[in-house]
Amino acid sequence: MQIQAFIFCGRGENLSPFSQFSADEVSNSHGLPKALLPVGNRMMIEYVLDWCNQADFKEINVVAHSDDIDLIQQALEPYMALREQQYEIISKSLSSSMHIHYLQKPRAINFLATKGHSTGETLQKELLSKITTDFVLLPCDFITDIPPQIFIDQFRNRDPENIALTFYYKNALEAADKKSIGKQFFTLYAKNEDSESRPVLLDIYSKDDVKKSKNLKIRTHLLWKYPKTTVSTKVLSAFIYFCSFELSHLLSIKETKEDQKSSGGEEEIISNQVATEIKPSYFRTENELVKDFINCNKSLGKVFRDLARRSWKHSTPRETVGIFILPELGTFVRANNLNAFMEANRFILKIKVQASATNTQTTTAGASAIGADAIVGSNCTILEKSNIKLSAVGADCKIGNRCRIGGSILLNGVTIEDEVILENCIIGPHAKISKKSKLTNCYVEGSYIVDTRSALKGETLTKIIFDDSDDLSDDDGAESSSEGDEDEYIEEYYDDDDLGEDLFQR
Known about the structure:
Helices cover 23% and strands 27% of the residues. By secondary structure, the chain is an alpha/beta fold. It has two domains: 4-256 and 272-339 and 492-496, Spore Coat Polysaccharide Biosynthesis Protein SpsA, Chain A (Alpha-Beta Complex), CATH 3.90.550.10; 361-453, 3 Solenoid (UDP N-Acetylglucosamine Acyltransferase, domain 1), CATH 2.160.10.10. The strands form nine sheets. The protein has a seven-stranded mixed sheet, with helices on both faces. Strands 18-19-22-25-28-31-34 form a seven-stranded mixed sheet, with no helix packed on it. Helix 4 (119-127) packs across helix 9 (300-313). It starts with a strand and ends with a strand. 38% of the residues are buried.
């Protein structure tokens, strides 16, 4: 059975100031939608689409906010045109070959606009009606050399009682700057080493929550059912969820009108009820899917956390959520924060070095050295005696004389004047670094101008805009500023909202 793929394009809160996300809900005119941020001078969503093309999914759907979907679709038009050209060239070359039947036409890419305030709400209210078979939920920001068939085989070989399969990967950035990593979590899962059952996800707790209460609270019922529970802080959610078709029935809602009119003439109340008659085909007859109500008005991370808790919270057995931790033999990176964004670029640059059969560096006519581990975009100007290593330089950039750029990312249209040193920096589009400046571990917003002879380390340089019409004393606006964040599966706070009082310290 083929699988439908849905790629969620979030707002990129942890990639600010380079994404369009703004904490005050004012659009960053110099930023890009998260899916279009470049990794190795390619939009990060292109890597996900390439991965999906290898998997031969039934269909590929790109899900983004209605404000961003047209921009994303327009930016991907050259990519889709290139796919068609490549297919035509290969089909012509194989026209007389006996292996032509192995060639498959690239899947069409559908673009779905959403106005949901969270990824869980988008799934429940806008996507479930489009799901007709097993499906997979993907982020727009992962880069991996692990083939998709590994993921699909794990899903198809799951235990019969697993209604979904989540994927986690080892955190390779523990030594990095903690302020750039984002929220971290305690992940609870059962390895089931002494049985034939595969590992299952049990619960997730925020490190902030544990630090605040000074202990890790685990419900007694969980330990009764899974006494050999593993608690880990070194695995991170890949936000890849392979789901059975039956899960769409469990999450679906059916609107029924209840005539509850008061004497004041209130409107009819519409209540959400779980759809009935759910009988999964591959479950055992004595283990029919129990019709619990799942609140999806939250991030997907919380939705699948609640599904994992569902397996041990009740006295009646419930279906489990499987977990698979990706092997370290391959590389898996999510560019969901600035530090991981840098690592994703370096991963692509290292692949470029391995694939290159030329010398270790290329010297331009002006005696400027561009390393084999560097990528320079089109229409760039690089003057004399400049050195670029392990860096990605976007299109239309201008680099002056005697500049040194190492381990950095320059987006399109950046201007670097003479004798500038950049180390581990991200420079936004159309920013300007004035001459004789030295920046180390800095982030510079698009169109920002760094003064001459600036020496900065570990700084984030952004423009501050004051709006006289804003009421700075209004707390309501600040309180609602986090609504609509479609990357909340990473940053949101995992609380103990529905665990009850039966907790104890482990």
